């Protein structure tokens, strides 16, 4: 088993070893016995047993008690499916995002919802010196972003109301933090199909967001165009809205079609 540098101050050895055990089990095309895992990892059987049972308790490894074999667990499969779905989403969205980016030379974002935040998972940046500061991997509140508002407006009512019951923090002085006011705003977003946010997440910025819907019309993601407010003129905004709506519809349709084809 490959070992991390002993002098590395941030490596937790038991976690590292447990993950290597998981990696070994996941790479096998069959269930494996404890002895095989221990031998391959160069670990004592008692240590390997503890790692395997811990991984089994969290669902990352399965244990067949009849044959005493270990294999990939349900939690690992779920996360693998999420990763494949996200990669599919990126692949389908990038051409549309590139077209929007070329048309306006402004930043185009792809975001998903995670634990009350919108996470930026793909981005086409503007070539202008003055542009938005978000980066891939950044997380911002759902309620203060056009990406988040587009997602929130299309959530099932119970999920949306649960979110609105939480404390809504301010990102700027313009952030809508009143649940009733936000609910009214989201009704408008749902009716017209897109969200517009002006200076709520970042002072001086403006963003237009449109949801990407799966086969159940669930908002799995959203795309947006963001730019300094001064550049989002009354001539540009309608064009951007139209292009984003058509682009999101295209991504949604292709995502549904791809999801219906067995891998």
In short:
This protein has helices spanning 13-27, 34-41, 45-57, 74-104, 146-153, 157-164, 179-192, 236-259; strands at 32-33, 61-64, 69-72, 107-114, 117-124, 139-141, 195-198, 205-213, 219-228. With 263 residues, the protein is an alpha+beta fold. It folds into 2 domains: 13-72, Orthogonal Bundle (Arc Repressor Mutant, subunit A), CATH 1.10.10.10; 79-259, 2-Layer Sandwich (Beta-Lactamase), CATH 3.30.450.40.
Describe it:
The chain is of the alpha+beta class and 263 residues long. It has two domains: 13-72, Winged helix-like DNA-binding domain superfamily/Winged helix DNA-binding domain (Arc Repressor Mutant, subunit A); 79-259, Beta-Lactamase (2-Layer Sandwich), CATH 3.30.450.40. The chain has eight helices and nine strands. The strands form two sheets. Strands 6-5-4-9-8-7 form a six-stranded antiparallel beta sheet. A three-stranded antiparallel beta sheet has the order 1-3-2. Strand 8 and strand 9 (219-228) form a beta hairpin. Helix 4 runs antiparallel to helix 8 (236-259) and helix 5 crosses helix 7. The longest helix is centred in the middle third of the chain and has 31 residues, at 74-104. The protein is elongated and about 70 Å long. It starts with 12 loop residues before the first helix and ends with a helix. The model has no long low-confidence stretch (mean pLDDT 89).
